[in-house]
């Protein structure tokens, strides 16, 4: 308003009478007043666009993404754990209960109806669990970061827990900043499995595999390869080259754990590797066969996809 007053006073000082004379003359007097106002408005729009560009952030190489101009908003990263049993996966799906939907519903409620979107390090399938999934979102609430964990857990369903909350710089992205991940797959080899473990481990009905053979086969998986053979056929991903840093097989009493780390994983990759190694362990496949399977880049040459409920996303590296 101060700027408008200055322009009006300047025009009147030049002899522009905005209240007297015929309508035609008054319109002519208003035109010189409007021109500077339009110029001022366009200049402000240009400044706003520049500010929005400065606020933009990069999410990984070759990716530039822009968010709304929100000077009072904080970038927040959260580590969560969830029991995947009752979820149709992480990502929002129409008419389905998902982890993302539950998180966004609670955050939107906390922000008094303003829709809050969350971004994860990656999605998990139906029935897959997570002990170290990472998400990020923006918040303008004044809740101290050290109290955000409790504020979320009070409202979230019991099969999702927030483990840690911290503020990060605006260039952090839960998905595009990922350097690697660790997954765990669990088989229960007890003669009689506890019914309380049925949704969290794979019941082998007492079958105990030869883990030495499984370890020999796992050596062929280590390193950088095109892992098309360990990828679901319906994926749209073109580049299927990934690096596996480690693959360990560990006995924990009557449970066999496969722990695998890599710079990234294709759709169903961990479950297909688990299914293939299991076939080696029970004598259906020779350990040396894994080399030929990988070189074939053919999904049909690998083993079956292991069930989802034995899989855990354990850690995300940044």
List the helices and strands and how they pair.
Layout: H1 2-13, H2 23-55, E1 57-58, E2 64-65, E3 74-82, H3 99-110, E4 119-120, E5 129-139, H4 145-155, E6 160-167, E7 180-188, E8 202-203, H5 211-218, E9 223-226, E10 241-252, E11 255-262, H6 269-281, H7 289-296, E12 311-317
Parallel strand pairs: 5-12, 7-8
Antiparallel strand pairs: 1-2, 3-5, 3-6, 4-5, 7-11, 7-12, 9-10, 10-11
Describe the structure.
About 11% of the residues have low confidence. This protein has 3 domains: 54 residues; 104 residues, Pseudouridine synthase I, catalytic domain, N-terminal subdomain (Alpha-Beta Plaits), CATH 3.30.70.580; 138 residues, Pseudouridine synthase I, catalytic domain, C-terminal subdomain (Alpha-Beta Plaits), CATH 3.30.70.660. By secondary structure, the chain is of the alpha+beta class. The chain is elongated, with a radius of gyration of 29 Å. The chain has 7 helices and 12 strands.
What's the short version?
With 318 residues, the chain is an alpha+beta fold.
CATH topology of the largest domain: Alpha-Beta Plaits
Rg value:
29 Å
* DSSP summary: helix tally: 7
Shape estimate: elongated
C-alpha termini separation: 49 Å
Q: Any key phrases for this structure?
A:
318 residues, alpha+beta, Alpha-Beta Plaits, 10-stranded mixed beta sheet, two-stranded antiparallel sheet, 7 helices, 12 strands, 31% helix, tRNA pseudouridine(38-40) synthase activity, tRNA processing, tRNA pseudouridine synthase, TruA/RsuA/RluB/E/F_N
């Amino acid at each position: 308003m101060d700027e408008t007053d200055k322009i009006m006073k300047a025009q009147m000082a030049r002899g522009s009478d905005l209240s007297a004379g015929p309508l035609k003359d008054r319109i002519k007097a208003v035109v010189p007043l409007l021109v500077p106002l339009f110029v001022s408005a366009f200049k402000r729009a240009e400044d706003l666009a520049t500010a929005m560009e400065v606020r933009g952030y990069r999410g990984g190489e070759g990716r530039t993404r822009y968010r709304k101009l929100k000077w009072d908003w904080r970038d927040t990263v959260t580590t969560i754990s969830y029991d995947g049993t009752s979820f149709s996966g992480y990502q929002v799906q129409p008419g389905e209960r998902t982890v993302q939907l539950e998180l966004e519903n609670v955050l939107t409620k906390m922000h008094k109806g303003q829709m809050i979107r969350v971004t994860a390090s990656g999605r998990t399938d139906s029935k897959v669990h997570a002990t170290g999934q990472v998400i990020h979102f923006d918040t303008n609430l004044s809740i101290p970061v050290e109290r955000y964990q409790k504020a979320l857990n009070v409202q979230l369903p019991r099969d999702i827990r927030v483990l840690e909350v911290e503020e990060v710089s605006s260039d952090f992205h839960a998905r595009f900043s990922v350097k690697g991940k660790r997954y765990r797959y669990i088989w229960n080899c007890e003669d009689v499995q506890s019914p309380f473990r049925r949704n969290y481990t794979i019941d082998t009905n007492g079958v105990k595999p030869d883990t030495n053979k499984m370890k020999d086969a796992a050596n062929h998986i280590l390193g950088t390869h095109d892992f098309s053979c360990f990828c679901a056929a319906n994926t749209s991903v073109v580049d299927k080259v990934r690096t596996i840093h480690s693959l360990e097989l560990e006995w924990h009493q009557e449970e066999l754990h496969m722990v695998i780390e890599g710079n990234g994983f294709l759709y169903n990759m961990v479950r297909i590797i688990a299914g293939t190694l299991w076939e080696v362990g029970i004598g259906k496949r020779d350990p040396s066969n894994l080399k030929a399977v990988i070189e074939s880049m053919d999904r049909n040459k690998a083993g079956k996809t292991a069930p989802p409920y034995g899989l855990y996303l354990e850690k995300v590296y940044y």
